[in-house]
Amino acid sequence: MAANPTSNQKTAIRTTCFSIIGNSVLAIIKWLAGYFGNSYALIADAIESTTDIFSSLLVLLGLKYTNRPADKNHPYGHGRLEPLVTFMVVAFLVTSATIIAYESIHNIGTPHEPPKKFTLYILIPLILWKEISFQLVLRKAKQTHSTSLKADAWHHRSDAITSMAAFIGISISLIFGNGYESADDWAALFASAFILYNSYRIFRPALGEIMDENLYEDLIEEIRKVSLTVEGVAGTEKCFIRKAGMTYHVDLHAIVNANISVKQGHDIAHNLKNTLRQNIPQLGHVLIHIEPDNYE
């Protein structure tokens, strides 16, 4: 059985706090290593880690707000804020990618000293840590059905890739020596392109969510199977799902015997609604429309 929405919220908030602490520590390390190690690729990496801190704070604020109960003005709750937070996270990513690309292009045409060798030894554990963080946060995002937490996970993967690009650029600069100092800057430019690509990967699902795009075939199939276990339900027809935060709201057409009374149909609808919410805890509002079977 899936975890209930309250448990999902707590898990998502804890995971986001983990991201904030991790990104804060890594940003400081990268800024110092990039500055003293004369590596713009590492400084670019530090820029992304710094934006990750602010984007994770946005995710945290969004998760806390979406946990508010439904009220008169928001009968379906406050979950729709989550994709909006995801859009703001994407804006942070695009901004950081633009800054990195601009500075990289400027540095490529400007003679400068090659990066220091010690920066390579700093990058290796950073790459491993960011990949581990990506796997952990992505697993929690799937567990909680959180779009913004998934965006936060891809921040970690972007950071791992930019760190890897920095490692390769610095290595080329050190191995080949004079004339290859700009390899470090080319690595930062590649990192900015990858950040933009990941921005699209994060943006697209959030857009689908806020536009009520049909993205939940597996959940629809599960709803249909559970519905058939309810006494009096002969089958199902239309099933529409809209996602708000970590909650799924359902409109379901259920087929019943055409000869039963309105009271019996009403009772079946309520029993079906309760059964669905007990077996699939991440469901929010469940609206049941009763359809008669072949009437004779």
Second-tier CATH architecture of the largest domain = Up-down Bundle
SS field, number of helical segments: 8
The largest β sheet comes out as: 3 strands, mixed
CATH superfamily of the largest domain: Cation efflux protein transmembrane domain
| Structural class based on helices, strands and sheet pairing | mainly alpha
The average pLDDT score comes to 84
- CATH class wording of the largest domain: Mainly Alpha
- The coarse silhouette is elongated
What percent of the residues sit in helical stretches (DSSP H or I)? 55-70%
Q: What count of domains describes the coordinates?
A: 2
Percent of sequence in beta strands? 5-15%
Walk me through this protein's architecture.
It is built from 8 helices and 3 strands, in the order αααααααββαβ. With 296 residues, it is mainly α. The protein folds into 2 domains: 5-210, Alpha-lytic protease prodomain-like, CATH 1.20.1510; 217-292, Alpha-Beta Plaits, CATH 3.30.70. A 3-stranded mixed sheet has the order 1-2-3. Helix 4 (118-144) packs antiparallel against helix 5 (147-176). It is elongated and about 90 Å long. The model has no long low-confidence stretch (mean pLDDT 84).
